């Protein structure tokens, strides 16, 4: 055999061996037909951006699991699941607070004997309800730098800024909140406002107070077409700017994340005002049982475990959330909004933080809102 022919055979064998190795690697890392699991996540819109970022990373690390993200208002998540109104089969539900999952469980078990979820719900990220106002207007409405429900109510009653010490050319006073029949932040807003109006602790009897009923009438008349989600609300607040949107209640997370957008769009920033008391809300995830097999549930659990790891929790911090994993430091996370000198933002908030109201209170809030004139 000639030296050239022998060399050619060796090269062919080498190429064949490399081809087998590459094919093996391809099989190892490519999704195997028939074994890929699809996990459909239905989340509150406040988590939309961090989840989209983490979706790509998770799928790269887990090629046999495909994620589909859907976004609804937190109350919608509950209602649509209970009434089976989705045109897809949810695997994971992540409303803005865990109390919504308690409500879902209670409603589900009125007609079913089994549990709606595979495992105990898992905290994903935390935030709290805050107020925001364009800076010059916030100084007039809250001269001591503290959010005040009475001052907001008086401005709504006056209907214009001149009635509360603002400039005449500021025009009408425009407060914005989300729809309490569809969104968690709107429900939290009306619960805290009702508590302030009635005095004392929030209870079922609070909503039988005529002053609270009048408050619901005033807010519903004043807030034109309230958005269905907090993210939509803040996008509209920034786009409209002063004279069309002056003060709003939103989550701290989204207020921090969208602040730079407001400064760029309007040429001026808004300021954050911490409510006292406020309500801490924990985005909480649960894997549903209905029409979800064990294999898909296992894939879903892998995604939830991924979300609670430190590296992913830091992504939530970059989007303005406080971590569910207490080992994460807000100030040391790269690109943390708490390092950007956002007006009013605080790492250690001194206000009282309450848990979200129970499901009966949420029910009363929705009832009063629907009845309000």
Automatic annotation (TrEMBL):
<keyword id="KW-0812">Transmembrane</keyword>
<keyword id="KW-0472">Membrane</keyword>
<dbReference type="GO" id="GO:0015689">
    <property type="term" value="P:molybdate ion transport"/>
</dbReference>
<keyword id="KW-1133">Transmembrane helix</keyword>
<protein>
    <recommendedName>
        <fullName>ABC transporter substrate-binding protein</fullName>
    </recommendedName>
</protein>
<dbReference type="GO" id="GO:0030973">
    <property type="term" value="F:molybdate ion binding"/>
</dbReference>
<dbReference type="Pfam" id="PF13531">
    <property type="entry name" value="SBP_bac_11"/>
</dbReference>
<feature type="transmembrane region" description="Helical">
    <location>
        <begin position="12"/>
        <end position="32"/>
    </location>
</feature>
<dbReference type="InterPro" id="IPR050682">
    <property type="entry name" value="ModA/WtpA"/>
</dbReference>
């Amino acid at each position: 055999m000639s030296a050239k022919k022998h060399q050619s055979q060796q090269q062919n064998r080498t190429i064949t061996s490399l081809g087998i190795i590459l094919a093996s690697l391809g099989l190892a890392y490519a999704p195997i037909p028939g074994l890929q699991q699809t996990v459909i996540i239905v989340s509150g819109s406040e988590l939309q951006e961090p989840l989209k970022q983490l979706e790509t990373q998770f799928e790269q690390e887990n090629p046999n699991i495909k994620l589909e993200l859907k976004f609804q208002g937190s109350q919608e998540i509950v209602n649509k699941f209970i009434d089976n109104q989705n045109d897809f089969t949810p695997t994971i539900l992540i409303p803005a607070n865990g109390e919504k999952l308690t409500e879902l469980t209670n409603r589900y078990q009125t007609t079913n004997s089994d549990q709606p979820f595979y495992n105990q719900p898992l905290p994903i990220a935390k935030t709290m309800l805050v107020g925001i106002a364009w800076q010059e207007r916030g100084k007039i409405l809250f001269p001591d730098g503290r959010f005040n429900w009475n001052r907001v109510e008086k401005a709504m009653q006056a209907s214009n800024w001149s009635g509360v010490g603002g400039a005449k050319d500021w025009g009408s006073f425009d407060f914005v909140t989300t729809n309490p029949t569809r969104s968690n932040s709107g429900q939290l807003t009306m619960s805290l406002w009702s508590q302030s109006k009635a005095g004392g602790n929030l209870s079922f009897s609070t909503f039988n107070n005529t002053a609270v009923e009048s408050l619901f009438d005033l807010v519903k008349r004043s807030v034109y077409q309230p958005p269905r989600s907090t993210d939509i609300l803040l996008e509209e607040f920034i786009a409209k700017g002063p004279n069309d949107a002056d003060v709003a209640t939103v989550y701290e997370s989204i207020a921090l994340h969208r602040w730079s957008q407001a400064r760029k769009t309007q040429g001026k920033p808004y300021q954050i005002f911490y409510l006292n008391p406020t309500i801490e809300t924990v985005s909480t995830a649960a894997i549903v049982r209905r029409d979800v097999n064990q294999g898909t549930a296992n894939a879903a659990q892998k995604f939830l475990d991924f979300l609670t790891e430190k590296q992913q929790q830091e992504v939530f911090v970059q989007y303005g959330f406080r971590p569910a994993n207490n080992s994460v430091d807000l100030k040391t996370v790269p690109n943390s909004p708490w390092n950007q000198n956002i007006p009013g933002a605080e790492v250690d908030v001194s206000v009282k933080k309450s848990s979200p109201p129970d499901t009966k209170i949420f029910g009363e809030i929705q009832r009063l809102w629907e009845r309000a004139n």
